[in-house]
Fold this protein.
Amino acid sequence: MKVLPMSDEPGVQTSWKSKLLADLGIKSGAVIEHGPAGAKCGRALTAALAVALGCASPAHAQEQANLDSSAISTITAQYGASVIEQHASADKAKAQPETSLSKLEIASEVGSAVIDPQGTLLKASTRFVIGGAVGALTDSKDTGEQAANIASAAIGSTLLGPVVGAYIIYDQAQETYAFVKERQQQKLDEKLSQVATRIERVQAEEVMRIRLEERQNRSALPDDAKSADQAALLKLVEDFKETGYLEPALEARVEVEKAVEKAGFQTEAWYSNYVQAASPTQQGGTPTTRERFLAGLNNLNVALEARDSLRKEESATMQMPGLR
Amino acid sequence: MTALPVVEIQSFGIVIGCNEAKQPACLILSCDALQEGGELARSATEAVLAGPDLMLVGTQGTLVLKNVAEAIREAALANLPLVVIDPNTEHEALLQVRHEGAADE
């Protein structure tokens, strides 16, 4: 005789599987407990389902059903917003914010779980399973770990083939948590990038403000100090014209003057020299050192290329003299 | 003729069975996952959703599962069949759930 999953006697293993469930293509399920002894019933049902789906031998199922720990009972999905909210509030002290948030979010969607107009009923059912999983997992700090324990306790680590509620719960709980974490990280990243952009802008604005303030202060300097400053800048511009290297000191002043020019105010005298030096169309006049250098480099390149192409032609002639 | 027994139970478990696409495909009840009345469930030939209760009517009597969860009710209203299994006797039966309210209207 077959073994009762809830019996105390060791079982005889059979290979019975439910044909009806196989025909319906049942691969997983959400266990819903009802009533005060619902947890016990849920445990027994999970074990029975494991057998019916061919995930566990009756002996194995019995072993699992007899487990006194709360592990398997946590498989059972408790339905209903009120139930889940109840869990959420009861465990508010224990639960981490993320967990209780998930519970509430799910609770609000559970109502629509099975009511798909097409009768496909789906999304919700997965949510529903997650809801059960999250709602039921109250003792664990790490839901993923707990769910993994449930899965292994319920169907055994070596069992393959169809899965029972535990697996889907594990799967969905993992996905949910991964999703929640991903979304939080994404939000955090967005926030940080917004802040970073803002900080950068504020910094740039602040730098410009300080430079403009310095410019203001310079204009209040005595005349000889002002002319010394202008002379120093003209020297920098000359150097720039010669070498093409923009000194940071000059660069900062150039930026200020650009802003001033853009705002439509009078720029400092040296700035026009700089604009002229920086302009790419410098026609006429004596070429600068830099220009001479660049021109020389260009000539050298042209000469080298010409020599290379000449060599190629010569070698072709030598290799194929008969073609001439 | 003696009246067939009517057993009402508050504690039980029901599974919403899902297919590979994780879509609910049926309700599953195991005869050993009930507070009592496993025999009645095993002999059931008809399932009736009556208000908040799910009744299993059979040759041995009627088992009333009191106040089934809303999800179960909705699944039944969506015409998901009820599969009663009993791994101990290797019994299984597919029952279409009749909606009593719908029939009356």
Q: What stands out?
A: Confidence is low (pLDDT under 50) at residues 1-13, 59-169 of chain A.
